[in-house]
Amino acid sequence: MSEFLDFLKHKYAYVAIGEFKPGRFAEAQKLYEKAVSTYTTGFKGAYLLQKPGTDEGIAVIMWDKIDDMQDNVSEAYEAILKQMSHLYKTPPTTSFYEVCSEIGTEAKV
Question: Topology of 10-98 in CATH?
Answer without folding.
Answer: Alpha-Beta Plaits (3.30.70)
